[in-house]
Amino acid sequence: MTESTNSEWRSAPPGEAVTPPGEAGSTLVGGPEEPVSPEPPTPPEQPGGKKKVVRLGDRLFQGVATGSGIFVVSIIAAIGLFLLVRAIPALHANEANFLLSGQWRTGDPENMAFGIVDLAWITVASSLVALIIAMPVAGGIALFLTQYAPKVLARPFAYVVDLLAAVPSVIYGLWGALVLAPVLKPVALWINGTLGWIPIFADGNVPANSGSNVFTAGIVLAVMILPIITGVAREVFERTPSAQIEGALALGATKWEVVRTTVWPFGRSGFVGGAMLGLGRALGETVALTVILSYTFEGPHYSIFDAGATFASRIALGSAEFNNHLTVGAYIAAGLVLFISTFAVNALARWIESGSGKGKK
Amino acid sequence: MAKRLDINDLNLYYNKFHAVQDVTLQVHARSVTAFIGPSGCGKSTVLRALNRMHEVIPGSRVEGSVLLDGENVYAPGVDPVQVRRTIGMVFQRANPFPTMSIRDNVVAGLKLAGVKDKKRLEEVTERSLRGANLWEEVKDRLNKPGGGLSGGQQQRLCIARAIAVQPDVLLMDEPCSALDPISTLAIEDLIAELKKDYTIVIVTHNMQQAARVSDQTAFFNLPEVGQPGQLVEIGETGKIFSNPSQKATEGYISGRFG
Ligand SMILES: Nc1ncnc2c1ncn2[C@@H]1O[C@H](COP(=O)(O)OP(=O)(O)OP(=O)(O)O)[C@@H](O)[C@H]1O
Ligand SMILES: [Mg+2]
After folding, report:
1. B145 reaches A (C-beta below 8 A)
2. b/e per residue B171-203 (b: at least 16 CB within 10 A)
3. Is the pLDDT of residue B67 over 60?
4. Residue B81 and residue A250: Cβ atoms within 8 Å?
5. Could you read off the pLDDT of A300-311 as tens digits, one per residue?
6. B100: which chain A residues are within 8 Å (Cβ-Cβ)?
7. What is the CATH architecture of B5-95+168-219+229-253?
């Protein structure tokens, strides 16, 4: 895959090098001034004439741009390849079904049995709890900031929301475990008591009052991804064409109806894209969840009051075991799954976002 | 339905900028009133003040009164949303809701007003689209998005949307400036048709258009750069174009018209 990308890139420059006269026009305007005002920059460029100077700059820029593009893509490919190469031997030595098993026994390289089901459950459940809480809140904040708040208030408020992204995740972890978890206990007990007949709110594999469960983790994650979703949503809502807003107003729409008929339809896909970006972040969050989620050997009950480990926190917790290739390979296999899923979610987010505003002028 | 407008001593501001000064004029029911004048003299500003759209711009301010059949739309306690439902507006650039279907675009105003009856909405859709001379072109694709129409069709869709709520007055700000001559003629015909039922105010830069469609014409001017725009004179269209009472009007019209 890397090779095919490479050859595409390589074949592109000559093809485009034929076209520049038209395209390079804008660069030509700025270009000639450089040699004119100071002394000639470098002797070798002089005999070729001015045109060549510009071409060289163009080439350089193009080279740098494509070079960095290739660099980034190959780093990602190299990471993927590294994960794959290291995971394969461990997967061969695995005595359990990697995709269907929930156990995690990796200490003895001769006798490993590990699977990702439990990890996947905890990861997905906490991320979804986060998303379900963060999406309406972020959407509400973004609508408030772009449509309702006076400018003097909107700017500082937006800044404060952005500040949430600057808090280190270990702080979030400590806050979640030490402050939020005790506060949430009565809430968790109440949900578990009244809605316990719904499986997702039933007793988990740790007591509902422990606090170190998916419920707490999801709420902390929600706060962590709030600035991402809010930021994207704010941007797309702000871009709603004023002609459309005025059109709705002139029809006698109230503020809320303007939002419903123009701002929301215009920004919806961008907002969902932002939520996907947040999801990608939540899936990969490590430190905060390592601190919050308590460790248990019991399998999950598929309730939000389960405790356990996510992909990322399992890997972080397992670092003490990283003493032989096969054991490490097992963790790397889990990491590979996480890598692929966050990659997929992010790609989906970009795809949805780029579709926002298409065919909408 | 159609109502008259009496505009008294209207002064309009954007923050500290005094955009329009002391406008007093009458708009007759079931007739077309054209606003003409050089760019920046405040035609759009006055027009937008008539249905209280001026105040949606942050920092803007209105002094004076606009009487709709004797009732001041700026009286305390009057809800601007209600005013905009009775005084419709068509903008310079067609602005249908692009993702909404053609049908939903037409009845958007009715739905905002709380009308749910399917049959009634269906009737209004057809009546308004016929009224806007668009029915034949779109009757087979009412469920397609409004953004998929041509520019001229979109503008007629906006007119249909505006007349669907049967407003007392219809305001049009250069409705043809982004259109080709054929679409322009279609809309001018439409205006002639609509004035049987509606009171229409139209801003235009096209003298011929003003002469063709309007019954009375108001000429606005800027005395000097930086000064507020003023209403120079208003009168029967034939008289304004053939024998204006003000030098400025004559200069503007002969410069642009002759
Ligand atoms: N949103 C606004 N904020 C501040 N000033 C404005 C705004 N809109 C218009 N103005 C100013 O008010 C004055 C009148 O503008 P207006 O748009 O009413 O002119 P106009 O007669 O409609 O011109 P045109 O024929 O070019 O459409 C102009 O000086 C303009 O710069
Ligand atoms: Mg204007």
Report:
1. yes
2. bbbbbbebbeeebbebbbebbeebbeebbbbbb
3. yes
4. no
5. 999 999 999 999
6. 261, 265
7. 3-Layer(aba) Sandwich (3.40)
Q: Is any ligand 1 atom within 6 A of the Cβ of residue B42?
A: yes
pTM given for the model: 0.81
Regarding the beta carbon of B156 and ligand 1, being less than 6 Å apart is answered no
Cβ contacts of residue A18 below 8 Å, gap of 6+? none
Report residue B256's pLDDT band, with 50, 70 and 90 as the boundaries: low
Does ligand 1 lie within 6 Å of residue B45's CB atom?
yes
Contact A253 B93 (CB under 8 A): no
Domain ranges, ordered by start, for chain B: 5-95+168-219+229-253
Mean pLDDT for B104-131 is 93
To the nearest whole Å, the CA of A245 is away from the closest chain B CA by 9
Give me the residue label for tokens 């002469």: B211
Please answer whether residues B98 and A360 qualify as being in contact, where contact means their C-beta atoms are separated by less than 8 angstroms. Answer: yes
Question: Using CA atoms, how far apart are residues A278 and A261, in angstroms rounded to an integer?
Answer: 26
In angstroms, the separation between the Cα of residue B86 and the nearest Cα of chain A is 8
pLDDT band at A54 (very low <50, low <70, confident <90, very high): low
Domains present along chain A, CATH in parentheses: 1-52 (no CATH), 113-354 (1.10.3720.10)
